[in-house]
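Posted in: Structural Biology > Protein-Ligand Complexes

Title: Requesting predicted complex, zinc ion in pocket

I'd be grateful if someone could produce the 3D structure tokens for the following input. Sequence and ligand are given below.
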Amino acid sequence: MNAFAKIGQETNRMTKQACRLLIYFFFLNLSAAETDIGGDKMFLDYDVRIKKENPDRILMTARIGPIPVNHLLLAMTQNYGRVETLSEIIPEISIYGAGRKSVEIKKNNEFLWEVDLPVSDTVCIDYAINTRHPYTSLNSVRLPYRDADHLYLPAASAFVHPDEKYLADNKIKIQRIRIHFDIPDEWTTATSWGSNRLAYELSPSSLETLNNGLIGAGCYRVHSFKVKELPVEVAILNVGPCPDEEIVRIVEQALIAGHDLFNFFPVSRVFALIQFIFDQPGRGSGNALGWSINLNYGRTFDSLDWIKETAHIFHEIFHFWNGTAISRAQSDHSLIWFTEGVTRFYQYKNMQRSGIISEEKYFQYISREYTDVFQSSRREDSLKSISGDYYADRSAMALTYSKGCCLAFALDLLLQHAFSGLKNFDSVMKKILEKYDFRVNRHCLTHDELDGVFYEILGKGLYPSYLRLRNCDFLQEFQSTLLSAGLEIEKTRGRRLYFGILDFGPPSDHLQAFKIDRESPAYQAGLREQDILLEINNWKVKDIPDVKKALQGMKENESANLIIERKNVKMRMRIPWHSFETRFNIKKIRNQSQFK
Ligand SMILES: [Zn+2]
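-- Reply #1 --
Done. Output follows.
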């Protein structure tokens, strides 16, 4: 049972990671005598049944045949970190062999089940998938989700299928994958393989096509159009912050902006599933699943801020264009700054290119990112090191986006300037996609390869600038790079801050320094993020009105006496209570005519 123990360990280890949930069957042939593997072709048929009155379950039937073996393992290989046992995901399961004879399932551990089958042509697996799982704010493939009016289902999270390696080792080809829906009358389907049908035959019939798919079923409004020659379908659920036409227009603009950059990208069809359903804390999140894009927005969404949501659509669509090649780089955490930071840069740049925002507004967005870098407690850390801590440290996570974005902005300008408009950051992206497309190379982009591309594009003269931007000299290098391209950075005074605290975090029963301006006198005097404020000038404080009361009558330049709690230890501090937020404004140097 060594192999089983190993798989068990592996799956347990993966529960700690943020990656996608994938359930599949390992097929094992335990009998040495059974050398005649029953056929080199296999079919997978799925019935997906959704009952409106049962919002907690999606009922599935998988028929897999011909089954050449009599022993199966059911394992969850990847998990996004919140699921403790396989039975949380699959609360009901029964497996039938020949003659619909039900077989026993042995549960070896939380993530590994074992089944002995009578030799059979087809195996039938009836199971239920739990749809009530906590939603992750991490940008990874989610579990199925449904409410009274719709189902959303990343295909990889719900379909059981044979182990890919087993199929390859035994030269078994998948002949057919069929998905059939049994859904409430008024519902329609919106899937990566088409919309408004009850049955889909996947083409090509491969596990990759199956796992990359995205499925929606519910009262979708589907809008079809073309971007150049590319058929696009946008499926929208629920009433969003803007009319459908506006959402469709933004998706179209974002695809056009990406299309111009990656016009060699072999996409045959684009499917975007847009929902306004999730009450998760992040405002927008999405992912590129094969040829699909999924965009979710929070329920608490502020309709006045549509431009921010527009930026999210541009962000996700940029991931979509380059995702197949470079989001694989996320397996190397030290590259997250590249996948996320550069994508953030392109969300703004492509909005400007599409005419959705002005150049002035574009500079404002970048100024905000630079301000975030400057305020961050980890601003000196290299992009590699903050990327490495992406999942472990909130401020590192935020910094990978803002710092990566600023790096791309600076190099974009530098390239335009040095090569008189013949090169820009697009040259870097194109070169990476030419050289390191995952689908061709079957290996992930490494940091060395990325550096190699930068060297090729920037040349000997400019490459050191990239190195300084990605290492510890970021702040100084950013300023001088911009200056050499005709832009200056103006420091301005933002809102008044108590103890330099920019953000007191989500409401709770204590007052916490969630985010502190790195430049503030309080930071310099020793106050740190995560510190809990207990007392100010002998007043107990629990919320912001308490803080105001405690500070009443104090002069601007005076210091206050604080009792704080840090890692369960109480500490006394005397620190300036008052400061103004450090902000920056990027703008063109006046009388600089050569800069376009
Ligand atoms: Zn992203």
